[in-house]
Prior knowledge:
By secondary structure, this protein is mostly beta strands. The protein has strands at residues 3-5, 11-14, 21-24, 30-33, 45-50, 56-61, 67-72, 78-82, 91-92, 101-106, 112-116, 121-126, 131-137, 143-149, 156-159, 164-167, 177-180, 187-196.
Amino acid sequence: DGVAVDSYGNLFATLFYCGGLRKINTGGVVSRISTDPQGIYNTFHRGVAVDALNNVYISIDNSAYKSMIFKMTASGQGSIVAGTHSGYQDGIGADAQFDSPYGLSFDGAGNIYVADAVNNRIRKMTPPHLNFSVAAGSVSASQFFSVSGTNLSGNMIIEAPVGYEISQSINSGYGSTLSISPASGVINGNAVYIRLSASLAA
Length: 202
């Protein structure tokens, strides 16, 4: 899925379905590098990037619903630098959450950027504390569903999932909760629109 080159000219490639990290040296020799001796994180690798010290960073999205950023030092030591279970949250180390992190890239200041696919965001990791925050992103396109009810004695209250917002109008009025008034105790197929929260957009 991803390709990166270190300062020695070695090429690193991630293979999502085959698993593991491949290294191709300047002589053309291909070797498989284990990113975890226990084999827990050796599959579902996405992006790869190399920093100025030749540390290799890999984005992992594995079958145990773990989305994380893994680091291999130039001496071969591996560690998880950010992420745990899939989700969305800014923070440091395990407090940061991603959902299907894909491409990785460094800038000249040593910041690393992650394409957080399902969360529709570009995430930024700032060294040395490895703090993740939103670098870029936008509100997603709205989707809708319909709700109905009979014999209702009061309003129907709908709460949006964490990270989302809802409205009865596709263009405005989004919030975390929605109250729908019945007509003679009946709500018949009212449309409810849902999208990623605008408060999460950069």
